[in-house]
Amino acid sequence: MYLKLKKTEPLLHLFFWGMVLFFPYVKYMGREGGYPMSFMHELVALLFNMIPTYMMYLWFFSLSNKRKFILLVLFFFICNALIHYHTDTFFHPEEGHEHHRWRSITSSLVTYLFFSLVFFALHSVKKLYAKQLELDTTMQEKQQAELKALKAQVNPHFLFNTLNNIYSNALKGDDKTPDLILKLSNSFRYVLHEGQKESVSLDQEIDHIKGYISLQEERLSTKIEVNFLSKIDNAKKEIAPLLLIPFVENAFKYTSILKGKNHPVKIKAVLKGNQFSFYCENPYNENEKQEIEINWQESGIGIKNTQKRLQLLYPERHQLQIKKEENLFRVILTISL
Fold this sequence. Notes:
rod-shaped, five-stranded mixed sheet, alpha+beta, 2 domains, Heat Shock Protein 90, single chain, two-stranded antiparallel ribbon
């Protein structure tokens, strides 16, 4: 709004002074003889009205300590009015008596005050909009800084946990280790390049999730059974990067501590129109939380970060439900993209 006002301000000034200049002619329109004063007389009067008005607008209103300069402003007003009066006598010298002089000077001072008040209102509106623009800019910069900080926290958790998985496999002499390293390389590439962008396409984000799931399936082998479903109307629709992976990571974190085999992990991503929904479900046992591997214990911060990022990126455009019930951990997320 401030930039729009600043752009149109010259037109506002021209419109205002145009009204001042032509008002007497409009007022006398239709009367016999019309307005008695010449156009040059009105131009001179306009000039003497503009000088003190713009002195106030461009200098005085911006001062932090205005009281120090009030007497100077009053002196300037009186001097300008006196010069205006003597200039005006060239147009009607017969009215140059003493009584008319002070009446004319008083009228000029009142006019200066009125115009100054009009431009003070404009100055105040501009200042208000400029302050709002400054606040908005500061808020945006603050949000960007927060988002960068949150991303920086998400990335190490994902990468560190995956590296730990590969390390475990390497110690066992698993032949799948080279394949895991290749998949991790792809994840690195996504995090370092796409993950630093403001938004990525949904197919990129989902491919990243698929790669992570593949890494965990290799690691957990027969312990998990993943059911992943993706129904995307428009794969090029954009979403903030690294927004879904903390929920997926959380699912595998809690499933990895369970005893037994073939624990079901259900993940679903659906886009219909502009409405994106994400569902993640995994078995959960509160009593076995202490069995979580030491390197995974802190990765829950990813969900906290995601909640903060959602609030910053999609305010009033998302709903997030996290439920723990019947030995199941469910995440239900909807976003209007």
